[in-house]
Amino acid sequence: MDSPTSQLWSKRVLYLFLAMLILFLHLLPLDTQPDRWPFPDLLIALTFAWVLRRPEYVPTLLVAFVMLMADLLLQRPPGLLAALVVLGASYLRSAAYGMRDMGFVGECSTVAVVVTAVFMLNRVILAILSVQQAAFGPLVIQLVLTIAVYPLIVLLSQNIFGVRRVSVSNNSIVGA
């Protein structure tokens, strides 16, 4: 197996491993009392960071599988948040190459808008379907924390996992 193909598949497996690790840590009963602050959605932040950095590492079917597993394991309505995250990731995937010249502030702003749209559409659709939901305050806190943790996820992805943007001069992207 050649190097670019093996690197592509190793990064896909790494994304799947990180997603399962996040879900495992989320399900792990570390405290018996309810949390005061909702935990940021690290899975959405990781997915969006990797989609913007290297879209070929996180294909749409992998994102759909991971998010559907998260819906099932975290006892959320199955498929709704998964579909919204897939739509958000598809939008970011289509905008990824145009955002290379924007800078990190522009990227964070775009991700903040997409994350806000995912959270709010999820809440609106659940309200239309008359599904009982948590209070609005914790949702806003989780939204703000997810947006705030995004730069840290990008930093970890670049420095530890080697998921960097493809430079404009290096357009050798492996087809997915």
From TrEMBL:
Keywords: Membrane, Transmembrane, Transmembrane helix. It comes from the Bacteria. The chain crosses the membrane at residues 12-30, 80-99, 111-129, 135-156. This is Rod shape-determining protein MreD. It comes from Ruegeria profundi.
